[in-house]
Amino acid sequence: MRFPYILLQLILLAFIFTAVLGLGKKILDLFKLRAVSLLEEVSLSFGLGLGTLSILILLIGFANGLNRFCLYSVLLILCIISIRELKYFFNRLNSGFSEKFPNLPDISAFNKFLILLFGATMFLAFTGALAPPLNYDTLSYHLSFPKLYGEAGKIFFIPHNMYSNLPFGVEMFYTLALVIKDEILAKLIHFSIGILCVLTIFVLGRKYFGKNAGLLAAVIFYNIPAVCLTSTYAFNDLGLVFYGLLMFFCIINWSSKNGIVWLILAGIFCGFAIGTKYTGALYFILPALVLIVFFTIQKKENVIKNMCKSMFLFILFASLTFSPWLIKNLIYTQNPVYPLFYNIFGGIDWNAELVQRFARFHISKDMNILSIVSLSWKVPLNNQVSVILLILPLLFFIRLDRNIKILISYTILVFILWTFFTHRIIRFLLPCLSVWSLLAAYTLVNFKKSKIASRVLYLLVIGFLCWNTFKFAATVGFNFFDVAYGKETKEEFLLKNFYQYDAFKFINEELPEDSKILFIGENQGFYCDRDYVGSSPLDLNDIVEISNASENPRIIYAKLNDMGITHILYNSSEVKRVSNTYRSFNWKQGAEERFNKFMARFTTCPYSKKGVFLLRLI
Fold first, then answer.
1. Contact in structure between 43 and 199 (CB atoms under 8 Å)
2. Which long-range contacts (CB under 8 A, 24 or more apart) does 492-496 make?
3. What is the mean pLDDT of the chain?
4. What kind of architecture, by CATH, is found in domain 495-617?
């Protein structure tokens, strides 16, 4: 059984998040906030701690300190210096539980159902997080680059892969996890961030719309298939959602309390969000500035002065918390926002043709108003979202307070930005869906036009929540349960579910440790324990560039020898896919023929299976 292994993972996870909570509380105390509930403090502290620790790990990586001793020491020091803050949380939690425990029987049956459903969904997501990673993005960069950083003990430039130069706020925690333990700990970190998203939705909903709406909104969000499934992956999307929710929460608090400290915190969380994913700039800067302008105009006093001051503070602190990633890219690529704005900043390993290829796969093609209208109905009907969100039109029959109007405006703006400026992947919409969940919960709780209609709505919501959980349970039970709890080994699971794994197993067991492998077509290098060279489908293709610039097969061979290449991993199905989809193999006249002759004359094939070939240079 794997229970000792799982217990160790949970201990390490608790250790990391204890350090995060203590660090975040120390920073939060600097702002001297008053009249903040315990759960607000917890949520804000986790947000500040996560963002700050990710930057600290980046700095440690620059200083060649990515080793177990250094990282364990940092976590331990953070826990020790935060003893007072951690004791404060323990005492408040203990007293709060003692006060509310007698009232637990008074919780409504519906809320008990929601809590049980959330618990079941969380257990299923936890189970999925215990399975070895399979997702393409995870194996190609979310975990593969942190693994390379951990092996090298430092952060360094990875050529011919633009993904390595994207903001890596959450991936810094994956680097930590891979150094001190393994990829399962990394997945559990993203799973835990998903729980923090749920907590923040509950805190926001409870404060402004009542605890019933807050609890329902939190469960609706976590019950969305794209959310609960994403929480089983080592992605960064839930980090973006978490920071975005905290930013939005701080802006609403600022508008209500007029405390400039809330605006500063909003800027900090916006910077953390952009440091997680570039889309944070798209989703959060413009909506935040619009809300700042709107609230400043409402106060009607020194409008221009206050507006400029508020916008300046927000942008300043967002820039400060995002700046480490700008500096990293400036040093490594000469472009602070690599690979964006190439026409302004340029950037190594990048050119105008690659800019067009990148834009073709990251920007919407049909940008028109009709897209917004049609997608607003199609998205809830998507099997990755939730039909429950279709109740939002009932808001027209409910008296809307100021904060609900803010939520509506925010979601409309973010949805428009998602529609026009992304390639419309559902998980890219999660920041919007988190607020949509609040709107749906508010609608259900406050729709009082008819008792019969209200009861029908509740029954439908219960039905769809149960159906989503049932589908998720089937997915987790069929795919992940055996390997998660030890009935199936990691190797058996990967051999069955990841067809390239047998080739990597051969590489790891049979090739000398000083081998260096050129990947052709393949890009998922996480399970490769030998040095390798590869390129993403959106970057310059190493072998194509070499073949295009070589006059004959012998020169190709000589150039690969100069690079230290000893083997080639050739994945035929991936070559076909990335060639057709991304046009990654742009051979010049005669180059492909020269490459084929090189393969025939200068390589042997010690391994081939399922269209994956390992070739040795002779």
1. yes
2. 493/131, 493/132, 494/132, 494/134, 494/527
3. 93
4. 3-Layer(aba) Sandwich (3.40)
